[in-house]
């Protein structure tokens, strides 16, 4: 599904990512790589193959869209260093033609040298390009004439059927000149939101993105 944000057209992807075709930029938020090993280390089992599914989706997007740049809107790696970081380094090295840009999130606590090994640019607060502001945390105030693209929330909504059945789905949430992306990582969970009156909600299903 295409949406207009400021002066640019973006595509909402059912792989829980955003694409700007004008400069071949892919935007994703909240991968939380390394989360499975982090929790296993602390005695809680999480599926090992969750990260594999995330890489499969990333590779699919790269193969189909041919991005020149990938902007990572924070929480790239979940916690302290573990071997899953080396897997991400291998992934980046396999895509040398792509610039990886990281806007740091609250979970990005690795030493800066690790991020510099894989990212062409590291931004500590917000990345501003033209009329768009890229941020990990949603902004409380957005300058006039600007639009913010953010992550962090892991937004989701509940849809109800006629027979009391319901389903929880991730979503893109747009309100007050701000688009919040769904979390890309498979182990992130959802923060259920109650949409504001003027908000637009685009739910993500297996096959499509649709406005509700």
Give the uncertain stretches in residue-range form.
none
Classification by helices and strands: alpha/beta
Q: Percentage of helical residues?
A: 10-25%
- Overall morphology: globular
Distance between the termini: 13 Å
Biggest sheet, open or closed, and with what strands and sense?
9 strands, mixed
The count of DSSP E runs of length 2 or more, i.e. the number of strands, is: 16
Q: Average pLDDT across residues?
A: 90
Estimate what percentage of residues fall within beta strands. Answer: 25-35%
Q: Radius of gyration over alpha carbons?
A: 17 Å
Element pattern in H and E: EEEEHHEHEHEEEEEEEEEE
Count of separate DSSP helical elements: 4
Give structural notes:
This protein is an alpha/beta fold and 212 residues long. The protein has helices at residues 35-41, 50-65, 84-93, 112-118; strands at residues 2-5, 8-13, 17-20, 25-28, 69-72, 99-103, 121-123, 126-129, 132-135, 147-150, 155-160, 166-175, 178-180, 191-192, 200-204, 209-211. Strands 8, 9, 10, 11, 12, 13, 14, 15 and 16 form a nine-stranded mixed beta sheet that branches. Strand 3 and strand 4 (25-28) form a beta hairpin. The longest helix is centred in the N-terminal third of the chain and has 16 residues, at 50-65. The chain is globular. The mean pLDDT is 90.
Please describe the structure with a list of short key phrases separated by commas or semicolons:
4 helices, globular, 212 residues, alpha/beta, nine-stranded mixed sheet, seven-stranded mixed sheet
Brief write-up:
By secondary structure, the protein is of the alpha/beta class.
